[in-house]
What does this fold into?
Amino acid sequence: MALAEINFDGIVGPSHNYAGLSLGNIASASHKGEPSYPRAAALQGIAKMRANMELGLTQGFLLPLPRPNFGLMRELALDTSSEPALIAAAWSASSMWTANAATVSPAPDTADGRCHLTPANLVTMLHRGQEWRDTKRQLALAFADTRHFAVHDAVPASFGDEGAANHMRLCESHSAAGVEVFVYGQQGSRFPARQHEQASRAVARMHGLDPAACVFIEQNPAAIAAGAFHNDVVAVANQRVLFTHARAFADQQGAYEAIRAAFPTLEVVEVPEEAVSLEEAIRTYLFNAQLLTLPDGTMALVVPGECQESPAVWAWCERMLAGNGPIRKVIPVDVRQSMANGGGPACLRLRVVADPATVDPRFLFDEPRLQRAESVIAEMWPEQIDPADIGSETLAKTVIEAREALLGVLALDELA
Ligand code: SUG
It folds into this structure.
């Protein structure tokens, strides 16, 4: 069976907006109340997927969840006079950041030889905590073949879980058994630590991982305080390579040693504070990059366009490329609409290592299917949403119809 890494990007939903809902996420707070551009946002996502497909990579997607979420509005007894932030939560398109959809342990790592997926409960934030049941429904459809996949329920809400954004996997090749690294936070900084250690440990047990191939690492409280609300804002791994800021972990050297004890061939590409400060790394999202193995075996880093505009970050990238490191290409992409809510290229994708033939093909893109999705978005996604539009009946109708049209062209109407 040919296992490959498949990136499942979240398609940006038609209700994409800037409500400033995520405490500790600097971009979300600083763009609060600005108009958003859902059509442009979703087309930026489509362009990123197309560019990765042109690199020769397999591309999957997950659909926007149903919004507004009338169920949540009922549960909270919301009406038009309710607090705008509560109404906005029920309208959030935040499921686009599929790095938070689930934690994925590929088949070679698990006791029963199946790929295990656990949707993230995302309990720290109301607008995200509503996602997991609908996400699970979608995962259960995309990965319905129980000979190859196991889709779990989320970890109980007592322990916050943010999914793959706090999980990294090191391996010699995607299809070889790997070492899974879980990064959790401790409360006590000025912002919430969203990933609880016990959630990570529960996921590792549920997935049947070998304890000797699991590493649990604490995130640097200073990174959380600076706005790294997920570990994937300051570190990313692919195969043998860990690309990280020097201040990502509470005990940086201890973290490398713990990983090396389980995975001796680890290659660390560390960016020192003197070259790129933690604040600049968080502002530009250098680490919220897709670190991809290309078909020729070399690695490329897909970074937000903001990196190219930062003299410090771009100078570091150029120095890195001039050296002899494992990352041979840096590719900037424009995902500005998502970035303004704190979601870079890596937030927008969930990595699943699997044989593409075992995945429901309706969740995979080829150019004709991508074009069909693109046409529906271009025609039906709202061009602009102003904060005052959130909650309006007219916009609700537009958003619902747009999503349904997308489900239609992708033959996924059962998710309506
Ligand atoms: O959970 N932003 C998301 C961004 C998630 C990024 N994902 C990863 N790092 N993997 C979040 O904070 C903002 C919504 C708003 O303010 O309207 C938001 O939810």
User: Anything to note?
Assistant: The longest helix spans residues 38-54.
